[in-house]
Amino acid sequence: MLIIMKRIFVKYPHYMLCTIAASLILSGLLLMVGEGSTNETFCPEIISARRIRIAPVLCFSGYVLMVFGIIFYRKSVAGMCLKGKSAIK
Q: Residue 47: pLDDT above 90?
C-alpha cells in the first residue's frame, strides 16, 4: 500500500499537495474546537491565541495550498496534454 501511494505521489505531485492541504485544514479546525461560553459563565479560552491566530492561519494556508494543488501541473505533463498525448502510461 505504501509503495502504491509513493508511486502516485511521485507521478502526480498535486495529489500530495492536496493531501497536505487537507491535513492543514483539518488540523486548523481541530485547534478551533473547544468549550464555548454561555450566558452564565465565561470561558477565557475562547480568546486564546490558539483559536484566534494559529488555527485560522493553518486553515487559510491549507485552502491556499489546496487551490494551488488543484491548478498545479508539471510542465512535462501539461505539455503532453496540450499536444494530445496521454500523460498516463
A: no
